[in-house]
Design brief:
This protein is of the alpha/beta class. The protein is 47% helix and 18% strand. The chain has four helices and five strands. A three-stranded parallel beta sheet has the order 1-3-5, with helices on one face. A two-stranded parallel sheet has the order 2-4. Helix 1 runs parallel beside helix 2.
Length: 91
């Protein structure tokens, strides 16, 4: 499966559509781990975390794990602040 990519901007107005699009594109048979590339994300708010956690919830329900790569220092800090960094960076 090709890694999913976060867009450059992910704000409240785009959050639901972004998550819905990803969920619709997921194959029936998922690999054990789905990679999401966050390197391009530069303009975001806490809605970006909600999208990542929503995708994680869907994948977990389907027996897969989400691995987020390329998180910017600002996104990492926001995830730490909200107490969800461990959910987005599984050991």
């Amino acid at each position: 499966m090709t890694p999913l990519k976060l867009p450059a901007a992910l704000l409240h107005d785009q959050a639901n559509a972004c998550l819905s699009q990803w969920v619709a594109q997921l194959p029936t048979a998922l690999p054990p781990q789905v990679v999401l590339d966050a390197a391009d994300l530069t303009d975001f708010d806490s809605s970006a975390l909600a999208v990542l956690l929503g995708l994680r919830r869907v994948l977990t329900h389907k027996g897969s794990v989400l691995r987020v790569e390329g998180m910017s220092p600002r996104l990492l800090e926001l995830a730490r602040l909200y107490g969800v960094l461990d959910l987005l960076q599984p050991a």
